[in-house]
């Protein structure tokens, strides 16, 4: 049980570190952290109930899978919140997030 709590706390700290560098949006970070936490708990429970008694490894696997799934879901939410515009000079579409950041369709930042 002690190893499980350490694993869950470690993954929670790693997920919160992602939010401090300012790269991904709030939805991606929030959903990744929530997915990692839920995945760690579920993995610890499953790892303990399987019979090998290694809840720490189950928590690590669950946190990794949950974090990825949460980040994907947050990215989908961000896409839904975007506005798409046409730039006649560049002859290309670009997207803007509600926070004001704009990107071309290929993912590069629009100045």
UniProtKB/TrEMBL annotation:
Superkingdom of origin: Bacteria
Which Pfam families does the record associate with it? Gly-zipper_YMGG
InterPro entries tied to this protein: Gly-zipper_YMGG (IPR027367)
Which residues, if any, are the signal sequence? Answer: 1-22
Q: Which UniProt keywords apply?
A: Signal
For this protein, the record's PROSITE patterns field holds: PROKAR_LIPOPROTEIN
Q: Where is the YMGG-like Gly-zipper domain?
A: 31-76
**Protein name, please?**
YMGG-like glycine zipper-containing protein
Q: Which organism is it from?
A: Peiella sedimenti
């Amino acid at each position: 049980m002690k190893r499980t709590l350490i694993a869950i706390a470690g993954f929670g700290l790693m997920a919160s570190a992602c939010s401090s560098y300012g790269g991904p949006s709030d939805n991606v970070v929030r959903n990744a952290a929530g997915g990692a936490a839920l995945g760690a708990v579920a993995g610890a429970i499953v790892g303990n109930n399987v019979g090998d008694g290694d809840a720490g490894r189950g928590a690590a696997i669950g946190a990794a899978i949950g974090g990825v799934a949460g980040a994907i879901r947050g990215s989908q939410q961000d896409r839904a919140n975007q506005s798409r515009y046409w730039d006649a000079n560049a002859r290309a579409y670009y997207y803007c997030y509600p926070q004001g950041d704009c990107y071309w369709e290929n993912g590069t930042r629009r100045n």
